[in-house]
Fold this sequence. Notes:
Main location: secreted
Number of strands: 34
Structural class: mainly beta
Number of domains: 3
CATH class of the largest domain: Mainly Beta
Subcellular location: Secreted, Extracellular space, Apoplast
Strand content: 35-45%
Low-confidence stretches: 1-29
Function: Lignin degradation and detoxification of lignin-derived products.
Shape: globular
Strand order of the largest sheet: 10-9-12-17-14-15
Helix content: 10-25%
Largest sheet: 6 strands, mixed
CATH architecture of the largest domain: Sandwich
Organism: Acer yangbiense
CATH superfamily of the largest domain: Cupredoxins -  blue copper proteins
CATH topology of the largest domain: Immunoglobulin-like
Amino acid sequence: xxxxxxxxxxxxxxxxxxxxxxxxxxxxxxxxxxxxxxxxxxxxxxxxxxxxxxxxxxxxxxxxxxxxxxxxxxxxxxxxxxxxxxxxxxxxxxxxxxxxxxxxxxxxxxxxxxxxxxxxxxxxxxxxxxxxxxxxxxxxxxxxxxxxxxxxxxxxxxxxxxxxxxxxxxxxxxxxxxxxxxxxxxxxxxxxxxxxxxxxxxxxxxxxxxxxxxxxxxxxxxxxxxxxxxxxxxxxxxxxxxxxxxxxxxxxxxxxxxxxxxxxxxxxxxxxxxxxxxxxxxxxxxxxxxxxxxxxxxxxxxxxxxxxxxxxxxxxxxxxxxxxxxxxxxxxxxxxxxxxxxxxxxxxxxxxxxxxxxxxxxxxxxxxxxxxxxxxxxxxxxxxxxxxxxxxxxxxxxxxxxxxxxxxxxxxxxxxxxxxxxxxxxxxxxxxxxxxxxxxxxxxxxxxxxxxxxxxxxxxxxxxxxxxxxxxxxxxxxxxxxxxxxxxxxxxxxxxxxxxxxxxxxxxxxxxxxxxxxxxxxxxxxxxxxxxxxxxxxxxxxxxxxxxxxxxxxxxxxxxxxxxxxxxxxxxxxxxx
Length: 577
């Protein structure tokens, strides 16, 4: 009865006016939303880098691919036409894809691949997201060259939570192989060895001044003295965390992935594959030419590309060399050493949400996932297919299971159609065997099992995952990406996770919200989220060589109650296997 009284109590005129204003504002925000139509033609085009021309897989003949610009609330309708010789899918990295796993894109997870000569239309709606994301191929190693920026501006009339920059510049950090990346992957699969490292890093597709045959195409960014620039930095590299900085200029971090952060100033950022970082740069130095540069942060005991990519921040009023009629040599930034874990850790620890956030505190699923490498033994160690360490074949796993992608159907299609035998839902919440994860691990634990195992979650359940790196083969920073969700990074540390000691140190006030987070090498990271997006969602290491070896698993989030908690029907043009 009391509830009835409350619901029928007359509103005052001021309440009516306020309610009307809110309703009109809501309608206005809906009317402002736009639908953006694009056609992405996946095709091979000649691309010359490092003195050689390769027939490179691109989108619309562009490398990197087109930049997509939308506002929160907008919808993207992208028809992907596959004119290449390989199967392909496209992933919209970091987009929530609410109730719409069909548009997420990972091959054999939410869709079968788009075969050569076929097409598929992705329909992607942006809901309550702002910031810098990106899109890329999610089929084998095609994303080495098939990728681009996806920029989400605030709704019309909504300002940034920082001073408006004079200009905005996407900075896509990539890797380049002086050969077909698909051949690099195929050779690694065939031999069981680690893939060849890249021959160059790139900024917006160009290696820069420090590589052969590259200085004429080095990317240059002209700026006026005194202006503030927003750099939208994206690590689209295949297999490498990177340090990035701009000579003599401070960077103010204001956002990561599609979330704003509490601003802080740094001279260098560390960014893992799949991650994005927004930084403000003020052109407050003497007019001149300044290198922006990126090189590896290598946390593993493994070979890596130790070259450096550059672009040039060029003040328009910079003086020329009067004698030669040429511009002066740019100033180079001081980047950390390749193995400077202390700097990487200190940087990551500064990233926080700008205000207090609502972190799940009552946890329904308390999961502990070991993530790391492994080695599969060979019956004939001298075989050309067993060129890993000591005649083995490289592997990787989560909780000692190397994920096997199906081939007869995608996971989501099999689930929706009720097809049995494609996957099981018995992925373990903890490792099958407890051990000293970062210590001297018995060789009996180095060989993972194989399976297509999913972990089932009820709609609305709350989840905590502790991702524990292992020392099997080598410790390493594994950038873990969860499709369909963002999560709060509530804690991290080195060594083995100890709940009695470490949970008390969790940040439950203003932890950062991310879609990709690295495990400290020889350490752990803890994340929390609520399972409010039904469907099957891949979680994997964004180092693509590790994904190839099986460092992945998937969550099956069941439907809730009613249409708004239920996966929408698949589109009619969804590819079939």
